[in-house]
């Protein structure tokens, strides 16, 4: 019976100090690794397992190779070396004492006490031979106590917190024993769901992950706990999505107006099929009374801006306003220039004027907008005379209020947090929620998108405008052919970017290095060409001027830091040189490369410099191999793991502890499916109060706040 079991919330309410044998010392140690409640404790999962039936015995260790063995300490002694270092020497044997091994530890005097006679420990290290005997120097040591079972769980331990695996093991065992003795774990996941996905019950899962009797049990337990983690996230997201759709009043836009059509007519090109399809999806959303909440995934250069403008215009033609938020000044400027030009000469209906219409007004608001200008814009927004507002974070500041904000587009969503999304939704005095479209700069894998943006509907722009020739990319250790290629392109009337080494630790250093690169090139390889310099410390006026000169072709080569990473759009630029490319991530390199190849002139991208690690090498090879952003996104996830995409989410208790967006892709999809069914069409999880409560329990506070706000 589900009600009879112990709920996770009850364990959360129990401090670990309620367990037998947890004194102040251990409590402090546990606190040091983030464990205060019994729930924390049972969620403190083993780092690995030692299968005693299969683990290497001392006899099978090979000299020169790394190995893992379970041993018993025979004796330990300490002496000083001639150079004054402490040297702890430990002699260990197989548990059945047939073979032995020497361990030496330099400058770790506590090892003498840690490895006292008779203790059992798991060692991991490289095996050497010293004076004819096997030896490990400074191996990793996990104390496992005198656990007997066949499988020994090894917990993450912390020297700093003075916490040892066997202590955790003992406490977890005690916690599980007490839960089982009372009622066992409650299992809030409906039986039919468990059966469909072949999942073990929760009691079995916690037992299997901590005290398995076979590695098969560990695998079963892991599947279940992974599912639980992902299900909680999906329930929260689906629920949030429902709340937004049902709980707030949006604007049912009239999509029959003529402005979007006029705009499309005026473009110098035909929309791609993908653009047409996505615009139709968006307008369909916008026509509904529930607020749109949608993510647009599209590769670099797929033409997201045109789609964004169609959304903004749909709002404007019905008498509302649109806001377009970009992550950087350069990009906001560029969008402002581009959009104002695209919409130049268009009019909006205005019955208060003689002609019944007035020119459409696009304004730019950033942190650098002067006070006077800002005041005029803010007034215009409140009166409804500013139709489209483009800008940076300045858009979501206090005091910026709209007469009737109908649609919001956020470009390069990964640079903004959930809170900022929420802030733009609150910009209408009457509480109506504008339609929202967020756009990614670079694609992220499907399952990752489902996890990070699971409260959004997703549209995909999976087609590049016709005639695009994929940028030819190469990885160069020698610079001179690169500069030769740059000179040739400039000769042919094209332009180039040179991106300077990324120095994340210090903007000052990065600026210095950009200045150095600029001076070197101007006086050397690119002497005689017209160079421009752009970095984070260049003032606004100068930045604008430099970009203007580059756009107009008066600058041949733009030497820059990553301020040009996203969105910059100068079709005549055909060469991208990235110096010290190994310092950049895949998404960044893909973005940078996306700055060229934006017209029918073939583009080239040079990645310059060595690769210090195997991972860096794989990154660079991937960029050279493919220009498909969706494929690169998968590679990135494989190489770097979830931290990169989870970003802001990796805070609360809702962290992915066992689940991996890489390995557990199919479970993400399963969890999504189940969440959609459980939350149901009517909205809410009324029929599953225990699950709902658990989701609440695992929600971080920030997220709970967010939910309240929306
Ligand atoms: P991104 O999706 O990277 O933001 P942009 O919106 O900046 O891409 O578009 C890239 C370039 O392609 C721009 O110069 C834009 O004018 C152009 N473009 C967009 N759609 C089309 C199309 N259907 N046909 C030709 N060119 C297009
Ligand atoms: Mg863009």
Q: How does this structure look, described?
A:
This protein is an alpha/beta fold and 710 residues long. Among the domains are: 1-51 and 165-186, Orthogonal Bundle (DNA polymerase, domain 1); 53-148, Beta Barrel (OB fold (Dihydrolipoamide Acetyltransferase, E2P)); 259-287 and 303-440, P-loop containing nucleotide triphosphate hydrolases (Rossmann fold, 3-Layer(aba) Sandwich), CATH 3.40.50.300; 472-626, Rossmann fold. It is built from 25 helices and 23 strands. Strands 13-14-10-15-16-9-17 form a seven-stranded parallel beta sheet, with helices on both faces. Helix 14 links the parallel strand 15 (405-410) and strand 16 (435-439). It is globular, with a radius of gyration of 31 Å. Magnesium ion (MG) binds at residues 304-305, 411, 567.
Return the CATH topology of the domain at 259-287 and 303-440.
Rossmann fold
CATH architecture of the domain at 259-287 and 303-440: 3-Layer(aba) Sandwich
Radius of gyration: 31 Å
Number of helices: 25
In this entry the ligands are: adenosine-5'-diphosphate, magnesium ion
Shape: globular
* CATH C-level label of the domain at 259-287 and 303-440: Alpha Beta
Give the structural class.
alpha/beta
Could you report the average pLDDT, rounded to the nearest whole number?
Answer: 87
Runs with pLDDT <50, length 5+?
648-652, 704-710
The CATH superfamily of the domain at 259-287 and 303-440 turns out to be P-loop containing nucleotide triphosphate hydrolases
Fraction in beta strands:
15-25%
